[in-house]
Amino acid sequence: VQLQASGGGLVQAGGSLRLSCAASGRAFTIYAMGWFRQAPGWEREFVASITWSGGMANHAGSVKGRFTISRDNAKNTVYLQMNSLKPEDTAVYYCALRSGWSDGYNYWGQGTQVTVSS
Known about the structure:
The protein has strands spanning about 1-5, 10, 15-25, 30-40, 45-50, 55-60, 65-70, 75-80, 90-100, 105-110, 110-115. It is mainly beta.
């Protein structure tokens, strides 16, 4: 399974970005997909996740009300709409996939840089 993330960039505080992550490969089933981020000097942290069949979403408290995760089952793609961005949102954002047979996220994308200037 390959995950291709896109949509990162440089934006001013208060602005918006939309990240996308498309999954491709052979013979895989998706239980859930999620977004994580890692800022310099910090550990990777959970941002948001969504289950594939029921569309149940979960957002970290730090982004709740500003970020929204969604998915397009037909395209095997997950999105992260990020509004009201803050400088502390600056990080490399990674998408991840939890396959139907895994207890956790077992596939990871390459990361996309999000930089929010003050």
